[in-house]
Amino acid sequence: MFRVFDPRQLAHAPAQEFHNGGWAPHADLPARAANIADRLAPFEPARDLGRTPILRVHTPEYVDFLEHAHADWRAAGRPGDAIGYAWPVVGRRPLNLDRIDARLGRFSYDACTPVTPGTWEASYWAAQTALTALQPVLDGRERTSFALCRPPGHHAGADYLGGYCYLNNAAIAARAARDAGHARVAVLDVDYHHGNGTQDIFLDDGSVFFASIHADPASDYPFFWGHADERGVGEGEGANLNLPLPRGTTFEAYVAALDTALEAVARFDPSLLVVSFGADTFEGDPISHFRIATGDYPRLAERIAALGRPTLIVMEGGYAVDALADNVEGFLSGF
Ligand code: SP5
Ligand code: ZN
């Protein structure tokens, strides 16, 4: 399997996140990606495929904000990582305010996703990692490819960051596949959390099917997206499938939902599949509550591989740092 990792992604090292009323050490440690990279070496480095494919998903205003937010934060005299504290209620005017706190509020939706000095560099190379891994699948040289992306991407929308995500690596790759001539692309999201950014990006787009299996947003982050009645809008009506599951979900119940998602993807009949893979469904994950065991990951992957589509696997979450390489290695072995 073709594998891409770029060490520039380690430049992002957020110190802490706001959670349940207090500051906690940030869960997206650079060691997450470094451990997987060590175990699965060698990797191809990312090629620089430029900003154009990023701007096919994200707005120019947001990309400009993300690139300069930390410098603007420093210019405002602030120490540490940049983070917002005030957010516009949905539907308010998109005011072009200058103050860094207002712009952090405009382009984000939570307080667990700080902008650090290395965030732009790492996010840029995460997007390039996904795009580089996509190329041999587009060319037909590889059937399956793995993009070891960090920071993850599936919570980032066209003009917002959140959920440890800044640029939506999977969405950027899916849009690039569409632009390269694939008429129908599916994104299957098997991270523990709902991929709200990916859903928002393709919600009215009938050419990209989004299917997600995740913790019920009634109990789990990101709360405001991921409910079963979100089925797409306009031309995208019916091209969005959310399968929320309760905390405590075991392999057996998970597989039943996965098979439902896979049947829907097969009916959509995509010529290319993007898998947003989070290993935070693991029973030992420190911030999640499903009961998938290390030995289950190859069996999950085999079911996805049975779709028989050219496939790009994009790394999303997974926070049990010591078990992560085993879980990722197991998942990839199923393809
Ligand atoms: C890509 C991804 O998996 N994002 C997950 C974002 C979840 N954020 C909300 C849960 C925060 C729990 N934080 C606990 C910090 C302990 N150090
Ligand atoms: Zn997650």
TrEMBL record:
InterPro entries registered for this protein in UniProt? HDACs, His_deacetylse_dom, His_deacetylse_dom_sf, Ureohydrolase_dom_sf
Acetylation among keywords: no
Q: Which GO terms describe its biological process?
A: epigenetic regulation of gene expression
UniProt xrefs under CDD domains: HDAC_classII_APAH
The prosthetic group or cofactor this protein requires is:
Zn(2+)
- Report the SUPFAM superfamilies cross-referenced here: Arginase/deacetylase
TM ranges are none
The Histone deacetylase domain, residue ranges: 45-332
Q: Which GO terms describe its molecular function?
A: histone deacetylase activity; hydrolase activity; metal ion binding
For this UniProt record, give its keywords in alphabetical order, as a comma-separated list: Hydrolase, Metal-binding, Zinc
Q: Which family does it belong to?
A: Belongs to the histone deacetylase family.
Protein's name according to its UniProt entry: Acetoin utilization deacetylase AcuC
